Amino acid sequence: MNKKYQNKKITMAHGSGGKASSDLIKDIFVETFNNEYLATMEDQARFDMPKGQLALTTDSFVVSPLFFKGGDIGKLAVTGTVNDLAMSGATPLYLTCGLILEEGLPIATLDKIIKSMQHTAEAANVSIVCGDTKVVERGSADQIFINTAGVGVIKQGIEIHANQAQIGDKIIVNGFIGDHGATIMQSRAELAISADITSDCQVLNHLVAKMLSVSNNIHAMRDATRGGVATVLNEIASDSNVSMIIQEEHLPVRVPTRGVCEILGLDPLYLANEGTLVCVVASADADKVLATMQQTKEGKEARIIGSVTEGPQGIVALNTLFGGTKIIDKLIGDQLPRIC
Question: For 229, how many CA atoms within 13 A lie in the half-sphere containing its CB?
């Protein structure tokens, strides 16, 4: 970090649009993100686009605490935006970065978050090309909120939509579920839970590219963030007018995550994830897609957890370990607020 900001805090002057703002942008953001688009200091980024469909997404991040085991709000912001693009089969290219900073935020904290964003962007092979910063009075926000937008390109022939699941398709997840939600719960001091859990926060675009390289029959895909795997399955089943059956014995849940859920009376199927996708793929391609996923860091724990079946449209059911069957419905609210 630039030495002149050591032990300094965000003041209202940093949001004034004057010299303090300009210096902060140049010394923290431009210096860290460091690309030709941002360096122009224009109010927009301009770039040529490859041929294909344009994919655009936006998201905001208000996680509490800002830093947690396995990630932080900066890593989360880039990961969430990149993954939203990747779930359409898009190749993410460019991101924006909008910040709401609370007066009094240590600039060292801001610098750490921005460097984390850049590190994650590099891992995803994307560039953060423009942004905006606003400062609000002390008490008007919780340290820092981040808004990001992302642009990517979908190659011709790729058609992945939530309404395309077909009877007979297999349902795959790329790894353990519920770790992010459990990590955030553990990080909040008021819960006083001790468990060896790390957030699954990771970019998934490279994994998706490898999946698409072996199959043209991936019908639907979503990252299981707020609402978890259960919510994603319900959304796809409803949009596609199909039924789904999930096998509890095949659900990948770490023992510590399951333990936290049992203590708090929660279901890991509904816990948030930040590096877990749900993929619905034609049965004929399921094994090769699974094998490809398992050869990657992001998908080494991938499992087939169920299938798309005939039955009441929009219904997701779970075959339990005890031999029964229960309906997995959407939650009315969220089990835990401010997890992303």
Answer: 31
Report the CATH superfamily, name and number, of domain 170-327: PurM-like C-terminal domain (3.90.650.10)
From the list 233, 253, 210, the residue with the least C-alpha distance to 309 is 233
Question: Which comes out higher in pLDDT, residue 133 or 191?
Answer: 133
The architecture in CATH of the region 3-154 reads: 2-Layer Sandwich (3.30)
* pLDDT band per the 50, 70, 90 thresholds, residue 16: confident
Kindly state the tokens that stand for 32: 């860290």
Helices (H), the chain: 19-24, 31-33, 36-39, 73-86, 107-124, 179-187, 205-214, 228-240, 255-264, 283-294
Rounded Cα distance between 48 and 336, Å, is 41
pLDDT > 70 fraction of the chain, expressed in percent and rounded: 97
What pTM does this model have?
0.93
- Backbone conformation region of residue 121, classed left if phi is above 0, alpha if psi is from -120 to 50, else beta: alpha
The rounded distance, in Å, linking the Cα atoms of 271 and 61 is 17
